[in-house]
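Might I ask for a little of your time on a matter of protein folding? What I wish to show you is a protein chain and, alongside it, a tokenised description of its three-dimensional fold. I should value your view on which stretches of the chain appear to form regular backbone elements. You will find the record immediately after this paragraph:
***
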Amino acid sequence: MRWEVFYYQTERGDSPIEEFLNTLPRKARAKCLAYIDMLEEFGLSLPRAFIAKIREELWELQRRKS
């Protein structure tokens, strides 16, 4: 089952995450988008190196250094 990822938008329609991603160098942006694609495909089945529970129903997507 594929997940659908939504980027946060302010009441004015701004998307801080998209704005942030657009400031990154091409290689870093591609890496971040690849992680987001993995989240869409695997959801919370991703290895814990990629996701972490913050509290209750709030999770973060991350890439820990090995």
Remarks:
- The longest helix spans residues 26-42.
- The chain is about 40% helix and 15% strand.
- The radius of gyration is 13 Å.
